[in-house]
Amino acid sequence: MLKNLKIENVAVIEKAEAEFSPGLNVLTGETGAGKSILIDSINAILGNRTSRDLVRTGAGKACIWATFTDLPDAVHSQLEQAGYEAGDELLLYREISAEGKSNCRVNGMPSTAAMLRDLCAGLINIHGQHDNQNLTNPSRHLALLDLYAQNEKEYAEYRQVYRRLIAVKRQADALQMDEDEKQRRLELLRFQVDEIESAALQPEEEEQLTARRQVLSHAQTILEQVSAAHNALAGSDDFGGAADLLGDAAGQLENAARLDDSLQNACERLNDLYYTARELATDLAERLESYGMDPAELDRVETRLDEIYRLKQKYGGSVEKVLEHGKAAREELENIEQSDEALARLNAEKQALYRQAKEKAEALTQTRLKAFSDLEKKLVEACTFLNMPGVRFALQHSRGPLAGAGQDTLEFYISPNPGEAPKPLAKIASGGELSRIMLALKSALAEKDAIHTVIYDEIDTGVSGSAAGRIGQMLKQTSAGRQVICITHTAQIAALADRHLLIQKNVESERTFTKLYPLDGDGRVRELARIISGDQITPIALANAREMLGLDP
Predict the structure, then answer these.
(1) How far is CA 133 from CA 127, 137, 202, 435, in A?
(2) Is this model's pTM higher than 0.90 or not?
């Protein structure tokens, strides 16, 4: 239940605060006083989209606070799951800056507008001035009927099977192709797989072949230089090599070390150099044998590198990409070759799922038909009470192909007068009739709805006289055990309020200010008299107002 609403710098409202009570709360005031601004503020605190235009001219930001009590269990659960404190009261705050930035808080903790929307979906139901026209839109009728039917279980079961059916159908469609196209694709894939797999590429092969080609291409030069290096180390018949000279030096230093221990370290290092030189000379001698001129090997390497280059040009910029393409082509080839078997399996599954979906859709249909039968009785009863005697409702219904919401196409029809055939709401109902039908529908839905607060923004549009009085009585009945907030221009409705608030606009120092005033007995009498007679409040209007409120003349 909405306990308190506080507004600062919202449009023409500099600062205003309203306390609401259980039962029927009524807000009245002159046209243009700011009642729509109040609805905009409530929409903002509910997390709905807003803009910087809501900020009062000259102010840096607009601020809105709302306090709720008697929270539904579902809202308690949402708060706890989101990590917010779930106490006896819920305090929501929203701030809109002049630059259009938004800041939200839930019980003092940072939040987002999306979180506010999720929470408030279970707190307040707002019936706006345009909802009556939405009632004439057949596309809205299915959702309204589902809301009354409370068929979430059947709907969820159908959606689960339907989603699986669509997924399987897409898989089957992907496997199904023209036979000629299929053969062309098979031939291409077989060629690609054979070409790539027969090449037997290895991940690091190209680098190794490139290095080998470098060696083979310069074999003579390498051979001459390695041979010279070997001779320099090992020596020849004509001169001694570096290894021999190191050996002589090591022998001389070893003799000296016997006389001077301090030379022992140098002696060991020189011996290391000698043995290293000998090992290196032996290694170079063995390597010289591998640098023989073999034109055939060079041709083989060049041919292999050319083959790798061609494959890279066709299937990717690297050997890894070529191998990946080959793997993907192999998988696609196997899938197509096995597609007939897979397609048969998918088609069988699709047929089974279709039968299940039809069964679930029919179960969903039955919940809707049963709900309308019950809803029609309640609507007739409520509309009769609202001075629409003899009204009849009908459901134009047909079963069609399976879709996201089931198999049903439906539209509400009405016959407002005895003897007339039911026709679409848009073609028959007047503005006043739509208001009463919508109230009747909302009243019926209220029995199914766990939301504690309902706001009606001028539900009495197009209605006057005794019909307006009946609307007031129905609002009063609906408010039993819950909270109804109604913006109205009708005295018959305002007279039935448990709490009456006046929205009044004043101009001070060439600035417009709107304020909210709770009305006591005398204030209610004057406001009802104003609604009845206009600006010139007459003694007769005051007497009528007192009578409507059940007060002594």
Answers:
(1) 11, 7, 71, 9
(2) no
* Residues 508-541 as b or e (16 or more Cβ within 10 Å = b): eeeebbbbbeebeeeebbebbbbbbbeeebeeeb
The Cα–Cα gap between 505 and 514 comes to: 4
Q: How far is CA 52 from the centre of its chain?
A: 24
The conformational region for residue 333 under phi > 0 = left, psi -120 to 50 = alpha, else beta, is alpha
The band of 350, judged by pLDDT with boundaries at 50, 70 and 90, is very high
Copy the structure tokens of residue 405.
Answer: 């919401």
13-19 β-sheet, strand order: 13-19, 2-10, 61-69, 89-97, 102-106, 109-111
Going from the C-alpha of 504 to that of each of 23, 203, 256, 510, 533, the distances in angstroms are 23, 82, 119, 16, 17
pLDDT tens-digit series, residues 186-239: 889 999 999 988 988 888 888 888 887 877 777 677 777 877 787 788 777 667
Residue 134 has pLDDT above 70, yes or no: no
Task: Give me the phi and psi of 9, to 5 degrees please.
Answer: 55, 45
**The tokens of 215 are what?**
């060696």
Nearest to 371 by CA among 155, 162, 160: 155
Percent of the chain's residues with pLDDT above 70: 94
pLDDT single digits (tens) 135-183:
778 888 998 899 889 999 999 999 999 999 999 998 888 777 666 777 8
- Inter-residue contact 39 to 455 (CB < 8 Å): yes
Residue type, 2: L
> SS3 letters for 376-439?
HHHHHHHHHHCCCCCCEEEEEEEEEEEECCEEEEEEEEEECCCCCCCEEHHHHCCHHHHHHHHH
Name the token pair of 467.
């019909």
The chain-wide mean pLDDT, for the chain, equals 85
Q: Which amino acid is at 278?
A: R
Say if strands 102-106 and 109-111 run parallel, antiparallel, or are unpaired.
antiparallel
Residue at token pair 């019909």: 467
Which of these, 236, 230, 223, lies nearest to 279 by C-alpha position? Answer: 230
Q: What are phi and psi of 12, to 5 degrees?
A: -85, 0
| Residue 220 identity (one-letter amino acid) | Q
DSSP state letters, 36-60: HHHHHHHHHHTT----GGGBPTT-S
Nearest to residue 527, comparing CAs of 507, 497, 553, 484? Answer: 497
- Residue 159: per-residue pLDDT: 95
